[in-house]
Write a structure and sequence with these properties.
By secondary structure, the chain is α+β, with helices and mostly antiparallel strands. It is built from 18 helices and 35 strands. The longest helix is centred in the C-terminal third of the chain and has 44 residues, at 812-855.
């Protein structure tokens, strides 16, 4: 250490500087470089500042010997600190304006001194006494005078009246007189026998004296108003003299002169407000009225019955296809599996009713439909408005005929028996005789041994453009439903689909009662348990009585995995499916001139396996002989596809027009085109878009997936819900890009195809219980869109959608089409690239194998 440094250190010790603190003089430029400017970063109130060692070394490297830290650079290099402490030197007359603490002891000492100095500012000896602030005197600006003028004051003079009655001396005198002094001075009341007969005589001794009461009351209403400089109760305007004085003042003239250029500039621009727009908007913000837009779903109507649906699980809700105010509702008991088995015999004798509701008369159901067992699925007939079909829990199908009441429901009439409604009797249990709601029986049920073995999961009507018949096993082109009976497909938790046909009995024989001799005797015996002594069951039950216990499926479709050689159905449990007819895909050039069904089918099934001799196409062989005949009409196999979901979370697509028939069992086998396990739970819903025929929605587990089944064999859009599991899903009826899903906790979610991410654009809890059904509902009269939901409490709710969920945008349809097309091309490109990479890997592996074989 030099002599100069030694002298500075000695002088610092003498001046009370702690050991390890070195006085330095820092120029203004150095203070700015290390961000320690006096009176900005450091001051007498905050005299301490930490500076990193790296900053000081950088300053020394840049200025070398000219640096202000050159005198203490060796101390800084040898200290083991990352930050040093700069202390503002408050000793008067010292040229060094800072102290640099390079040791930990010096830093702690100065921090302690600063803490002690701050604590010394507090007066801990004298007792603190709170002194409330004194209010400032109120300064009136004139409004108080107007308020006081409006006060009601008692300013009228009082009138005092003294009224006295003059005393008058009486002109007569009173004296005492005896009774016997005069004649007739008294009249005696002798007792006698009263001849009047009184039923009950009561006496009451009371005395009454009228006493005048004089009361003096006064009423005064005090109108008090708070006085404040910020409150003005009534607008005030200048008088003519005040306005004339203000307009002629020099202050107003100078303001107009300054604002003249701004006014001329605003007049020259297209925008009137111009540069003062922000100021004007801020000024008028006080008059801004907030417009409230409804963004939540509102419950419009609730359908629930205290007897038939309360605390029950709604399994199916089906709105009528022609009359949008009619809906059918099926409920089952909320029972566990063990309780369900124990109550099986009771439910067979008195199963739950099907409720037919009308939104015009929604207090009670309009009709009650009896069923052989619990109904879990309902579908209205597409052409016969009075026919309703349902699926039972035991695998049967049931048909009801409502032709006796459909006209009343169509005309918005009430079907209740008001004579029984107005009766004063009170019944503890439901009785069909005394009840005012009409009860109908089923018209026909399918054969038990020919239907499903499990609970019916889905029913879909065969499109009008195709039909099945006994001549061939593939769907043909249909000329219209007026010429052929209606057909449908059904599935259960099995690995096959059944094709059914509904034949309507002629009208003249439709009215058949239970006592008719045309009915099967076994059917009468089986229903005898439901009869009573009265004749309530002797009624018409519809046009389908000829199908009672004789209704059987015409075909059974089984499915094989893609490129499967085995003829055994793939083990799976179907949950839901959608039928997709593609008549525009018929290849007429592949048909031979004058060809028959067999000739057209040969090209489509040429790739099928022919190893099993038992499997043949009987319909083809039947028509081979007809090929030789003259001029036979051309019958075309319409390409018809099925997209189905399974209990295992898989989705597959199959072309049912390409099938093989087993000559012994008559079963049809169809090869799947693709089979994908994509859902993390059972597929609960498969729905076709009402806007685009090639978009299919599947819901299962926590995923909702949108497929474009004509172009891709993989999902187009996949979205995941982080809430509870999804139960059902449906498309929006007005907006092509929106999808609704329901959750187990009673939440409704709205998803947009155009929005990215896994978050719904709208989410609302409406029930608090598991939602079992969800579908769109539209009312043409008021042009509103609704959402129909049902839950495990036995209630069906109609929710009115907010405007942002039902009004379609100007370019939403075009944006949706463009998005689906762009996403399809992207997925195709990725699939092709993955396929080319797999081919390259296979080629590389083969070349390696060849090289290894050549080396050996």
């Amino acid at each position: 250490m030099s002599d100069l440094e030694t002298e500075d250190l000695d002088s610092s010790i003498n001046n009370g500087i702690v050991e390890g603190a070195y006085p330095v003089k820092l120029s203004r430029k150095t203070q700015e470089n290390i961000e320690c400017v006096v009176n900005i970063d450091i001051s007498t109130q905050q005299p301490l500042k930490f500076v990193s060692v790296e900053t000081i070394l950088e300053d020394y490297d840049h200025f070398k010997e000219n640096s202000d830290f050159s005198s203490v650079i060796q101390v800084i290099k040898t200290c083991n600190l990352t930050d040093v402490l700069l202390v503002l030197n408050r000793i008067p007359g010292n040229i060094n304006n800072f102290l640099l603490c390079a040791t930990q002891d010096a830093i702690q000492e100065y921090l302690r001194r600063e803490e002690d100095s701050e604590s010394g500012l507090l007066d801990l000896v004298s007792e603190y006494t709170y002194k409330p602030p004194s209010p400032n005197p109120w300064q009136g600006l004139g409004s108080d005078k107007e308020i006081e003028n409006d006060w009601v004051k008692d300013c009228r003079p009082r009138i005092h009246l003294n009224i006295k009655l003059a005393l008058r001396k009486p002109d007569f005198k009173f004296s005492d007189r005896g009774v016997e002094d005069v004649k007739d001075g008294y009249v005696s009341c002798e007792p006698f026998q009263d001849a009047t007969k009184w039923s009950e005589v009561r006496s009451m001794e009371r005395g009454m004296q009228a006493v005048p009461i004089l009361m003096e009351n006064g009423t005064q209403t005090h109108l008090t108003h708070p006085k404040s400089v910020y409150i003005q109760y009534e607008s005030r305007s200048f008088s003519d003299d005040e306005m004339r004085k203000a307009m002629s003042s020099d202050k107003f003239k100078s303001f107009i002169t300054k604002a003249e250029n701004l006014i001329e500039m605003a007049q020259s621009e297209g925008d009137i407000m111009g540069n003062i727009r922000e100021d004007v908007e801020q000024f008028y913000l006080r008059d801004h009225v907030e417009e409230k837009i409804e963004t939540q779903m509102i419950e419009f109507l609730s359908l629930s019955d205290l007897v038939f649906s309360r605390n029950k699980r709604v399994k199916a809700v089906e709105w009528h296809k022609h009359f949008n105010h009619i809906t059918a509702m099926a409920c089952v008991d909320n029972l566990s599996y063990d309780d369900h088995i124990e109550s099986l015999s009771k439910r067979l004798l008195s199963p739950n009713y099907i409720l037919i509701w009308s939104t015009k008369h929604f207090i009670y159901p309009q009709l009650l439909l009896r069923a052989p067992d619990d109904v879990v699925l309902l579908r209205w007939h597409p052409t016969e408005s009075a026919s309703l079909i349902g699926g039972l829990i035991n695998g049967q199908l049931v048909i009801w005929d409502l032709q006796n009441y459909i006209k009343m429901l169509e005309n918005l009439e009430c079907t209740w028996d008001h004579r029984k409604m107005n009766n004063g009797d009170v019944f503890t249990e439901w009785n069909e005789d005394k009840g005012f709601i009409p009860v109908l029986h089923w018209s026909a049920q399918s054969a038990i041994d020919q239907g499903h073995l499990e609970e019916v999961m889905d029913i879909q009507w065969v499109p009008n453009s195709i039909r099945y018949d006994q001549e061939s096993s593939f769907p043909k082109e249909s000329s219209g439903m007026g010429n052929y009976p209606q057909q449908l497909m059904s599935c259960a938790r099995e690995n096959y689909i059944l094709v059914w046909q509904i034949d309507i009995k002629p009208v003249e024989s439709a009215e058949t009662s239970f006592n008719s001799s045309t009915l099967n005797r076994s059917v009468k015996d089986r229903r005898e348990s439901f009869k009573s002594e009265s004749s309530k069951y002797k009624q018409v039950i519809g046009r389908y009585t000829h199908l009672e216990l004789k209704w059987k499926p015409i075909y059974k479709l089984g499915f094989l995995k893609p490129d499967s050689v085995e003829e055994r159905f793939h083990p799976m449990c179907l949950q839901a499916f959608a039928i997709l007819d593609r008549p525009e895909h018929v290849d007429l050039h592949s048909l031979q001139p004058g060809g028959s069904v067999a000739s057209s089918r040969r090209s489509s099934v040429s790739n099928a396996s022919s190893k099993d001799e038992k499997v043949s196409n009987s319909s083809m062989e039947h028509h081979k002989n007809k090929d030789k005949s003259s001029n036979q009409p051309l019958i075309t196999a319409v390409p018809t596809f099925l997209l189905a979901g399974t209990l295992q979370g898989a989705v597959f697509r199959a072309n049912v027009s390409v099938n093989k028939i087993n000559s012994e069992t008559g079963e049809l086998t169809v090869n799947m085109q693709w089979y994908k396990v994509v859902h993390d739970g059972p597929v609960n819903a498969v729905s076709r878009s009402p806007h685009y025929s090639d978009l299919i929605l599947t819901v299962g587990g926590n995923l909702l997936i949108i497929w474009r089944e004509t172009e891709l064999n993989q999902p187009l859009i996949v979205k995941s819900s982080d809430q509870f599991g999804l139960t059902k899903g449906c498309w929006s009826l007005s907006r092509p890009s929106l999808v609704y899903t329901s959750c187990e906790d009673g939440t409704i979610q709205c998803w947009s195809m155009l929005a990215g991410g896994n978050s719904p654009i709208h989410e609302q809890n409406i029930s608090g219980y598991t939602i079992t059904c969800i579908t769109g509902y539209e009312v043409v009269e008021d042009e509103n869109q609704y959402l129909s939901t049902a839950d495990t409490t036995g209630s069906v709710r109609l929710l009115k959608l907010p405007p942002n969920l039902q009004d379609i945008g100007l370019t939403e349809r075009e944006d949706t089409e463009e998005f689906t097309q762009r996403e399809t091309e992207r997925l195709k490109f990725m699939e092709e690239r993955a396929g080319s990479e797999e081919k390259k890997e296979k080629i590389i592996i083969k070349e390696k194998e060849k090289k290894e074989e050549a080396s050996l």
